[in-house]
Write a structure and sequence with these properties.
Number of strands: 9
Order of helices and strands: HHHEHEEEEEEHEEHH
Largest sheet: 5 strands, antiparallel
Distance between the termini: 85 Å
Helix content: 25-40%
Bound molecules: flavin mononucleotide
Number of domains: 1
Number of helices: 7
Radius of gyration: 22 Å
Length: 259
């Protein structure tokens, strides 16, 4: 039996319409769950970079949330002054959103990390265990080769020694720049120094292998075949550790903590 052209086009259109309704329905219906999973993933990344859980650990959502709530304190700071800003609710604050809104951000000075806008307020994290400060975490972002990498850097209570680094979103090529996610590469970071003795952000990802932290405290192995992503990581770290990023906050913290 042969169908008319009209029937074939109509049938195809009907199939498309049914599929479109199904896909749109799934996208809308699963939005809340996606948001919850995104939040859980961020919380797990923060806990991992703080060294509270193992890289890639498989934890139930309730375990992640409970550990997060008992050990991570989110705080909002004024990025320019580094002062705490208790007027903003840290639980509801979305820094990436704030960075895009002209009412809550400003144009960033030209920089190698290609950060375009700076949020007026920024989110920082204190990691605590038995009431004692174990690490400080700052959000980091900057351009790699294909797009912006977003992640976290954890510093020891001296605000100089690196505890860990992680990225939760990027567009780098798997196997090349995407090796920023490789646990073996991330394991090279703890113990390196973010700042030199004069307080200048000095940490960099070099081309080729670096020595162990004690001998080569300011350099980390480059990602092979991914010099541009490696350079991007150097640029973004130096930007966020510097005067236009979290430099003022870290300086104030050091002065108050006497470290
Ligand atoms: C398909 C494709 C994907 C690439 N992805 C990346 C990447 O994610 N990060 C990166 O730095 N270089 C990437 N490169 C390589 C860069 O173009 C460039 O050659 C490289 O960064 C130079 O690094 P090297 O000096 O270590 O070889 C990619 C190249 C190709 C052809």
């Amino acid at each position: 039996m042969q169908h008319s052209n009209g029937y074939i086009v109509g049938f195809a259109a009907a199939v498309c319409a049914v599929c479109a309704v199904f896909v749109a329905g799934a996208a809308v219906g699963l939005k809340d769950r996606q948001e919850t999973n995104r939040l859980l993933d961020r919380q797990q990344k923060v806990l991992t970079v703080a060294g509270l859980i193992e890289e890639g650990a498989s934890l139930a959502p309730a375990e992640i949330t409970s550990l997060y709530e008992s050990s991570i304190e989110q705080k909002i700071i004024d990025l320019e002054t580094g002062e705490l800003d208790p007027a903003v609710d840290a639980r509801k604050f979305d820094q990436r959103k704030a960075s895009k809104d002209p009412a809550t951000s400003r144009v960033a000075p030209e920089n190698l990390a290609k950060v375009m806008r700076l949020p007026n307020q920024a989110l920082v994290f204190d990691v605590k265990k038995d009431g004692e400060l174990k690490a400080l975490i700052i959000p980091i972002e900057g351009y790699g080769l294909w797009g912006t990498l977003y992640g976290y850097l954890a510093l020891a209570p001296d605000a100089r020694t690196i505890v860990g680094i992680t990225f939760y979103s990027h567009k780098e090529t798997p196997g090349l720049g995407g090796e920023v996610d490789n646990p073996r590469w991330k394991a090279l970071w703890p113990g390196r120094m973010a700042f030199n003795e004069r307080g200048v952000p000095t940490i960099s990802v070099k081309k080729g292998p670096a020595g162990p932290p004690a001998e080569d405290p300011y350099q980390v192995d480059g990602l092979s075949g991914a010099t541009l992503t490696s350079r991007g990581v150097t640029n973004l770290l130096r930007f966020w550790l510097g005067e236009n990023g979290f430099g003022p906050y870290l300086e104030k913290y050091r002065a108050q903590a006497g470290v």
